[in-house]
């Protein structure tokens, strides 16, 4: 199962649950769109061990049929405090942006997630990522191209690390 955390009006933390099969089939169906024939970057998937296994099974099946699938995993990592700080900063920026839209009547609203507003929920989101998602992703090391990138630093520093990883993996998306 996949979870999304938020706080309700009573202050209780709620977890929205999504079945792995639903998430997997949604991603696989979307990837069959002809718009992605030359490739696609999928952000935030896989998140669970079952989803990781489904990606690996697909990767292995394609290789067994003689295809050369370009599946690569790039994971950006941060420590908990920096992750929480960035989540809360993103929430503040989105709220400010939406307030400007309300005043001007023009523009597109940005999503404001509960994990971007509440430090406790932001920490829980980070801990779930480390305990479930990061652990699941680690199981792909040695089975398919895999790079972990330290995401500390400013935007340009991290961007350069990502571009270097893409070049290292020989991905043709830059």
Concise account of the structure shown:
This protein is of the alpha+beta class and 174 residues long. 50% of the residues lie in helices and 13% in strands.
Explain what this protein looks like in three dimensions.
The protein is an alpha+beta fold. The protein has five helices and four strands; from the N terminus they run ββααβααβα. The strands form two sheets. The chain has a two-stranded antiparallel sheet. Strand 1 and strand 2 (13-18) form a beta hairpin. The model has no long low-confidence stretch (mean pLDDT 82).
Write the SSE topology.
Layout: E1 2-7, E2 13-18, H1 20-31, H2 49-64, E3 73-77, H3 80-104, H4 119-138, E4 146-150, H5 155-168
Parallel strand pairs: 3-4
Antiparallel strand pairs: 1-2
